[in-house]
Design goal:
elongated, mainly alpha, 0% strand
């Protein structure tokens, strides 16, 4: 829900600025002012990811209990762990790429300013 609100807000801002049409589905450009909303969203995302890790750990321990005879518990633990890994790695890659893109944009502005 928070991610939807963030993306919806960013698309609305771009539409209001005239940079995107009302039929756009994604935000391709990433500007420095978007970090405010993303900075708010990231702790909630990582909180959810670590909840997935906690679920995986707890379910794995439950699957090793001698009283547990169901195979589904271990499979759920593996699924939660794969979700945790995939979500965390993907988010870290995106944040790194956005950070590098922001640095590149700032360097281009400085170069352009010095050349004028």
């Amino acid at each position: 829900m928070l991610q939807y609100r963030y993306q919806h807000g960013q698309l609305y801002k771009l539409k209001a600025l005239g940079e995107r049409s009302s039929m756009e589905l994604t935000v391709e450009g990433f500007h420095s002012w978007m970090w405010r909303g993303l900075g708010f969203l990231l702790p909630f995302l990582f909180g959810g990811y670590f909840l997935q890790l906690y679920n995986a750990y707890t379910l794995w321990n439950l699957s090793k209990d001698p009283r547990c005879h169901e195979w589904q518990v271990g499979i759920c633990a593996i699924v939660f762990f794969v979700l945790f890994l995939g979500n965390t790695v993907t988010t870290l890659i995106v944040v790194k790429r956005k950070f590098q893109q922001g640095l590149r944009t700032e360097a281009e502005k400085v170069t352009k300013y010095k050349s004028t």
